[in-house]
């Protein structure tokens, strides 16, 4: 190529060079309750008592484990133009998410689903339920599901806050659906921990939310504090980003 013009040689060299692979990292952390862990209040089943009365129903708006881990905290990436790991995107299209009416409660209490991904609402109970999803940007959904039945739901637009789910037949039942346009959302487990995999390396902004506290404002992580809206920018490393044990004061839930 020694007789070719320099610019042509440069272009050919770039085309021949191997493509740089995208790099992905994992964000994890654990939310910890500060203070004496509250006991979950008992709920009274006053409808279909012969079925629902068999189960020990407890309020789930604030669940704190024996080690003070806070369950059902929602963490998601807010950036609308975030690059999405293609493997995660393909898995979401192939795998529906389930929300079950089981033992006269919703299981799980909080579930994450992507736009375009199928949410299958099931009914494992022997009595009928309805699942009334109150979203802001998506059409209302209020589906009656007979015993042993199921119904699919899809969302076309992501929601900036989780959508509430209730059962009009059994008013003590409540759940939440986190609708996002990408797979970068997680709900904390029984020990308060969460993990979001396959996030592109670099800076992203997270939203921290809990149903009783709302946006988790000014909680401290290894990468600084969240702002008053429960948002925090974090640097995602290829080796992984650990936000550490994130303490949340008891006063945050007095709303």
List descriptors:
21 strands; 3 helices; single chain; mainly beta
Structural features, described:
With 255 residues, the chain is mainly beta. The chain has one domain: Immunoglobulin-like (Sandwich). Helices cover 9% and strands 41% of the residues. The chain is built from three helices and 21 strands. It has helices spanning 6-16, 49-52, 86-94, and strands at 24-34, 63-64, 70-71, 74-77, 97-102, 105-107, 110-114, 119-123, 129-134, 141-145, 150-153, 163-166, 174-180, 185-187, 193-200, 202-210, 214-215, 220-221, 224-225, 231-236, 241-249. Strands 4, 14, 16, 17 and 20 form a five-stranded antiparallel beta sheet that branches. Strands 7-13-12-9-10 form a five-stranded mixed beta sheet, with no helix packed on it. Strand 5 (97-102) and strand 6 (105-107) form a beta hairpin. The longest helix is centred in the first third of the chain and has 11 residues, at 6-16. Mean pLDDT is 92; it is low at 8-21.
Topology:
Elements: H1 6-16, E1 24-34, H2 49-52, E2 63-64, E3 70-71, E4 74-77, H3 86-94, E5 97-102, E6 105-107, E7 110-114, E8 119-123, E9 129-134, E10 141-145, E11 150-153, E12 163-166, E13 174-180, E14 185-187, E15 193-200, E16 202-210, E17 214-215, E18 220-221, E19 224-225, E20 231-236, E21 241-249
Parallel strand pairs: 1-21, 5-8, 7-13
Antiparallel strand pairs: 1-15, 2-3, 4-14, 4-16, 5-6, 8-11, 9-10, 9-12, 12-13, 16-17, 16-20, 18-19
């Amino acid at each position: 190529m020694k007789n070719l013009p320099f610019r042509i040689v440069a272009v050919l060299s770039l085309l021949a060079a191997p493509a740089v692979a995208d790099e992905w990292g994992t964000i994890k952390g654990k939310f910890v309750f500060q203070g004496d862990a509250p006991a979950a209040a008992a709920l009274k089943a006053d409808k279909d008592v012969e079925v629902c009365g068999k189960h020990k129903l407890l309020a789930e708006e604030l669940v704190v484990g024996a080690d003070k881990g806070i369950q059902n905290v929602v963490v998601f990436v807010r950036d609308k133009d975030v690059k999405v790991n293609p493997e995660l995107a393909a898995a979401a299209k192939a795998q529906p998410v389930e929300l079950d009416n089981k033992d006269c409660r919703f299981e799980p209490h909080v579930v994450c689903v992507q736009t375009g991904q199928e949410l299958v609402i099931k009914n494992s109970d022997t009595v009928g339920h309805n699942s009334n999803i109150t979203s802001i940007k998506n059409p209302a959904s209020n589906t009656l599901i007979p015993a042993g039945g199921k119904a699919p739901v899809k969302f076309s637009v992501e929601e900036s806050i989780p959508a509430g789910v209730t059962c009009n037949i059994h008013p003590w039942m409540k759940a939440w659906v986190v609708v996002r346009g990408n797979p970068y959302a997680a709900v904390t487990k029984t020990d308060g921990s969460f993990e979001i995999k396959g996030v592109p390396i670099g800076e992203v902004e997270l939203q921290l939310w809990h149903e009783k506290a709302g946006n988790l404002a000014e909680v401290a992580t290894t990468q600084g504090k969240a702002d008053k809206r429960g948002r925090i920018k974090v640097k995602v490393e290829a080796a992984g980003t650990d936000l550490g044990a994130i303490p949340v004061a008891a006063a945050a839930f007095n709303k």
